[in-house]
Amino acid sequence: MIQFLLNQELRSEHALDPNLTVLNYLREHVGKSGTKEGCASGDCGACTVVVGELQTDDDGREHIRYRSLNSCLTFVSSLHGKQLISVEDLKHKGELHSVQKAMVECHGSQCGFCTPGFVMSLFALQKNSDAPDHAKAHEALAGNLCRCTGYRPILAAAEQSCCGKQPDQFDAREAETISRLKAIAPTSIGELNSGDKRCLVPLTVADLADLYDAYPQARLLAGGTDLALEVTQFHRTLPVMIYVGNVAEMKRIEHFDDRIEIGAATALSDCYEALNAEYPDFGELLHRFASLQIRNQGTLGGNIGNASPIGDSPPLLIALGAQIVLCKGETRRTLALEDYFIDYRVTARQESEFIEKIIVPRATAEQRFRAYKVSKRLDDDISAVCAAFNLRVENGVITDARVAFGGMAAIPKRAAHCEAVLLGQPFNNAVVERACTALGEDFTPLSDFRASKEYRLLSAQNLLRKYFIELQTPHIETRVTAYV
């Protein structure tokens, strides 16, 4: 059984189909049809809902953290122990919520199909910021598409509803909601079971290891932003899933003198602060990683584990010399991330083995790390090319070189020939040009609808040139914002 709050109503579910998304649960099982399906792939934001989770700060203060999610990519099992809020829940005692009033008064809605999703993104923004600036508003709304009204009035609604906000019914009920979330906090393995399909929800790494050993055919579910597409886009059935999002040990971020250890189930939005503090370019890239709804849901371990050749984080982590810890039963092994990827969607992971955490070296003064993403849109788009450069230059000579790319091969990988040309050489234009030529030996990219093979290779070479120019003239640095 799993339990969660539907606004303030306790829901206990056991026999539901584990392949059921939150979107379809709302629309078909509880009659809340305000949440819309636009794309069923997490691109349009029409299905946005907000999930509340109990959070304890370092000072011991308890509060509810509200996050916007794409309900079309969220399986119901991930709600275990949480609160689900849909657009119908905002109206209170016959009065519209302040974010809804702002959308009306600022003329932010026309056909209305996308409006519930925008309202829920604005609600989450209001809850998480006292006075969001223009950039925060853009970030919160980047995952919501409007096809008729335009965004200026919607941004005006964001400003009106979030600046000088007043307490609402959720604030008034916070203590009660905290108490109710505590009462349903999971204490044992949860399960949804429809007879022929099941999803198990462990609470510890040990439980996860035991379950995965017992069900090696199971699909591991973290954020689900990739896995759910198999159901919503390809109409496949997932007979057995194991949801790892309630394993607290795999959602920790721990800092050590020489490294940061990030649990594999840590949401990308939670990774931002730690990675941005060490490597600002990593932080910049995370701002361009899909949408806020996806970053609130997708995990760093999932972005590695799905072994996509165009995943944004692996090239950066490879260039930084990151490692992963793989767990199987009581056995753990540490593997360099670059050795994890073998071929297209093929990895070094053994049966019943899972990624427990990612180890990222701390930044040093000698490192010169930069990352660049080339895509057709600045926000919410997949890379055509993702490049990461990490050189150590001492007395004008390159003493260490790590160059990695995504989108250039069947796997994210280092550019070995390019690195060999750079290593031990002076960091000057002539050497960089030879290294650009060597990239042609490292990669034979494919042509697809994102870019031709010629464009990809030229882009990779130009990004290396860009990296060199920016390090020589840091005042013109543009960092990760390259796009076509």
TrEMBL record:
<dbReference type="InterPro" id="IPR016169">
    <property type="entry name" value="FAD-bd_PCMH_sub2"/>
</dbReference>
<dbReference type="InterPro" id="IPR036683">
    <property type="entry name" value="CO_DH_flav_C_dom_sf"/>
</dbReference>
<dbReference type="InterPro" id="IPR012175">
    <property type="entry name" value="Xanth_DH_ssu_bac"/>
</dbReference>
<keyword id="KW-0479">Metal-binding</keyword>
<protein>
    <submittedName>
        <fullName>Xanthine dehydrogenase small subunit</fullName>
        <ecNumber>1.17.1.4</ecNumber>
    </submittedName>
</protein>
<dbReference type="InterPro" id="IPR016208">
    <property type="entry name" value="Ald_Oxase/xanthine_DH-like"/>
</dbReference>
<dbReference type="InterPro" id="IPR014307">
    <property type="entry name" value="Xanthine_DH_ssu"/>
</dbReference>
<keyword id="KW-0274">FAD</keyword>
<dbReference type="Pfam" id="PF01799">
    <property type="entry name" value="Fer2_2"/>
</dbReference>
<dbReference type="GO" id="GO:0051537">
    <property type="term" value="F:2 iron, 2 sulfur cluster binding"/>
</dbReference>
<keyword id="KW-0285">Flavoprotein</keyword>
<keyword id="KW-0408">Iron</keyword>
<dbReference type="InterPro" id="IPR006058">
    <property type="entry name" value="2Fe2S_fd_BS"/>
</dbReference>
<dbReference type="Pfam" id="PF03450">
    <property type="entry name" value="CO_deh_flav_C"/>
</dbReference>
<dbReference type="InterPro" id="IPR036884">
    <property type="entry name" value="2Fe-2S-bd_dom_sf"/>
</dbReference>
<dbReference type="InterPro" id="IPR002888">
    <property type="entry name" value="2Fe-2S-bd"/>
</dbReference>
<dbReference type="Pfam" id="PF00111">
    <property type="entry name" value="Fer2"/>
</dbReference>
<dbReference type="InterPro" id="IPR002346">
    <property type="entry name" value="Mopterin_DH_FAD-bd"/>
</dbReference>
<dbReference type="InterPro" id="IPR005107">
    <property type="entry name" value="CO_DH_flav_C"/>
</dbReference>
<dbReference type="InterPro" id="IPR016166">
    <property type="entry name" value="FAD-bd_PCMH"/>
</dbReference>
<dbReference type="GO" id="GO:0005506">
    <property type="term" value="F:iron ion binding"/>
</dbReference>
<dbReference type="InterPro" id="IPR012675">
    <property type="entry name" value="Beta-grasp_dom_sf"/>
</dbReference>
<dbReference type="InterPro" id="IPR036010">
    <property type="entry name" value="2Fe-2S_ferredoxin-like_sf"/>
</dbReference>
<feature type="domain" description="2Fe-2S ferredoxin-type">
    <location>
        <begin position="1"/>
        <end position="90"/>
    </location>
</feature>
<keyword id="KW-0560">Oxidoreductase</keyword>
<dbReference type="InterPro" id="IPR001041">
    <property type="entry name" value="2Fe-2S_ferredoxin-type"/>
</dbReference>
<dbReference type="InterPro" id="IPR036318">
    <property type="entry name" value="FAD-bd_PCMH-like_sf"/>
</dbReference>
<dbReference type="GO" id="GO:0004854">
    <property type="term" value="F:xanthine dehydrogenase activity"/>
</dbReference>
<dbReference type="GO" id="GO:0071949">
    <property type="term" value="F:FAD binding"/>
</dbReference>
<dbReference type="Pfam" id="PF00941">
    <property type="entry name" value="FAD_binding_5"/>
</dbReference>
<dbReference type="InterPro" id="IPR016167">
    <property type="entry name" value="FAD-bd_PCMH_sub1"/>
</dbReference>
<feature type="domain" description="FAD-binding PCMH-type">
    <location>
        <begin position="192"/>
        <end position="365"/>
    </location>
</feature>
